[in-house]
Amino acid sequence: MSASAVPMRAREPGPQRFREMAGNVGWGVLAWVVGIAFFLPVLWMVLTAFKPESAAQTWPPKFIFSPTLSQFRLVFSGWGPFVTHSVIATTVSTLLVLLLGVPAAYALSVHPVPHWRDGLFFFISTKMLPIVAVIGPLYVIALKAHLLDSIWLLIILYTAMNLPLAIWMIRSFMLEVPRELLEAARLDGAGRIREITGVILPVISPGLVSTALICVIFAWNELFLALNLTITNAATMPMFLISSVPQEGLYLAHLSAAAVVASVPVILVGWIAQRSLVRGLSMGAIK
Amino acid sequence: MANVKFVSATRVYAKGAPPAVNALDLDVKDGEFMVLVGPSGSGKTTALRMLAGLEPLDGGRVEIGDRDVTFVPPKDRDIAMVFQNYALYPQKTVAENMGFALKMQHVPKDERARRVKEAARLLDLDGQLLDRKPKALSGGQRQRVAMGRAIVREPQVFLMDEPLSNLDAKLRVQTRSQIAELQRRLGVTTVYVTHDQVEAMTMGNRVAVLADGKLQQCDTPRQLYDNPVNQFVAGFIGSPAMNLQTVPLTEGGVRLAGTVIPLPTAVRTAASQAGLRELVLGIRPEHLHLANGAGEIAGEVLLVEELGADALLHVRLADSGNQVVARAEGRKPPAPGQEVTFRVQPDDVFAFHPVTGARLAG
Question: Cys-Cys with B120: which of B43, B125, B323, B325 at CB 3.0–4.6 Å?
Fold first, then answer.
């Protein structure tokens, strides 16, 4: 077969190529500037965590100093109960969210129940209410139920807080499961439980990981409820950060160290799960 | 092993819409390879899914082995299905995929392993593949795993939904004969859906042609080819398709390309009884014989498709300007632009009602 083709040019003509290169460089520089602008506060915070208190107060900020771990030592001596409560509240609430969210998402996607659309809207509508509006009633209920300053209160509330989002996310992943796969399972004799555990869950597992990670992030960083409904027996890491901002004086280095320590667990979890996270969040994109 | 019956089976998707499957009456004999063929939207896949229990029936019933299974769930019908996209469980190994149904039936582990190995052997699946996941397999291997999953269940009926459509052409031809041979060996009743009429003709004991949800004709491939019952079947079966032309009736036959094609008396009588002035004439490409100037049907060659063994001539007929396709010897076909003539045997000609499409009996 004869092919008549226009011979490809080895290089584009001069001025066009320069324009293209300049464009690329321009975008690159802009990306770096924006990235650095976002990262600079974090960098400052991490650096300040290693400074002694006196060096932390200067303006302009010192980038050259003799690092010390004294702030971290202070943090680690005080963080015990806070981190325990945070870990318990976060992990238990996330597990509950997954336990409840999977069947709920199933009932709203693979085997829709009647009025599933209304159900979905109801779930997402709970997120439309600002949390400030319900803190009053929540406080009274917690008081009457003797749950104030209890870790179980936080677990219940974090579960309720994350469940709508988790249901929406898990539902979207379940919708991606090919219909033929479910029919094949049906023909093979898989009952409802088997269908979920044996077929659906393995297929959407990256999505479950990303959902769990999002729930962990929200639960770990939640401040408002913890601040208003707990005091000592269930105080979480964000409360610990607040306690590092005393009424008088400014202990920036200590605060920075506490903030670094508070952020590290979530970053670590995200880093470990990053492969699943990318797969999970882009699952619908590539069929 | 069992027979399958569709008795007036109907499926309607939306109220008021025409039925996807319209009162289908079909008998599949025990051990038979029945192919359901038709264009997209003909209802063939819907009919198969009704048999599988994946679609409910809106009318009529389905029987397997003389048992009414219309309301029986799919897993209790003793059937196995091969899906178009194979539907293999991605997180399970090949062996687990094939053994899943048996696991659901609580078949003991060693019996499961035995049956899986046996099916793999039947399908020429290398033993090493049993521990791999589907994503590590080629398309052809995945297709065989999908078939193995069905075979392992030792069902009464195999259902296959266009299992070859995702394979490349060469592999398709190879696998086609393997499936047919496998079915012959196992002797299991098989209902096979395809849109490819070549698959239908080469694989089926009998072929059921569907269009718009209705059964057009159910017959052996030979009968479908030689005796189509209506214009649709005539034009659908056979590749390249039969040439169909609307032609005016005249004394002794019909007028085509400046000449009269004679029709049998019975056909002419049927046409005049129906009050027809014209009808649809069907001539298969291989029945238009090149006549080197001595033929009655004249035309000009527009395009020559050389297939090696034969050549397909696209010819514009004189007089009417209609295009027909004729099959000619591959060695020295006429060149484009050449004037040619054809001869046709009166027995090789079909006549159809111009409105209903029904064959005018000869």
Answer: B125
Chain A residues touching B91 at Cβ < 8 A: 202-203, 205
Nearest CB among B54, B81, B89 relative to A181 is that of B89
Instruction: Flag whether residue A188 sits within 8 Å of chain B, measured between CB atoms.
Output: yes
Residue B285 near residue B330, CB atoms below 8 Å: no
**Residue-wise DSSP of B55-73:** S--SEEEEEETTEE-TTS-
Which chain B positions have a beta carbon within 8 Å of A185's beta carbon? 89, 100
Average of per-residue pLDDT values in chain B = 91
Whole-angstrom Cα distance, residue B267 to residue B261?
Answer: 12
Could you tell me the two tokens for A19?
Answer: 């324009």
CA distance B101 to chain A (A): 4
Q: Do B74 and A184 touch (CB under 8 A)?
A: no
Between B91 and A245, name the one with better pLDDT: B91
SS3 state at B109 = helix
B83 to chain A: which residues are within 8 Å by CB? 180, 183-184
Nearest to A188 among B54, B75, B90 (CB): B75
Over residues A254-283, the pLDDT tens digits come to 888 888 988 888 888 888 877 777 776 665
Helix (H) or strand (E) holding A121: helix A116-125
**What's the pTM value of the predicted model, to 2 decimals?**
0.81
Whether the CB of B93 is below 8 Å from some CB of chain A: the reply is no
Question: Amino acid identity, residue A127?
Answer: K
B123 and A CB contact within 8 Å: no
* Unique residue bearing structure tokens 């989002």: A165
Short-list B182, B179, A185, B87, CA closest to B194: B179
Give the gap in angstroms from C-alpha A159 to the nearest C-alpha of chain B: 29
User: How far apart are the CA of A287 and the nearest CA of chain B, in angstroms?
Assistant: 13
> Could you tell me which residues are beta bridge partners of residue B254?
B249, B261
Q: What is the mean pLDDT of residues B76-84?
A: 93
Give, rounded to a whole angstrom, the gap between the first and last alpha carbons of chain B: 39
pLDDT over threshold 90, residue B222: yes
Q: Does ipTM surpass 0.85 in this model?
A: no
Contact present, B318 and B332 (Cβ < 8 Å): no
Tokens, residue A93: 């609430």
How far is Cα A259 from Cα B356, in angstroms, rounded to an integer? 82
Give residue-wise pLDDT tens across range B104-140.
989 999 999 999 999 999 888 888 889 999 989 988 8
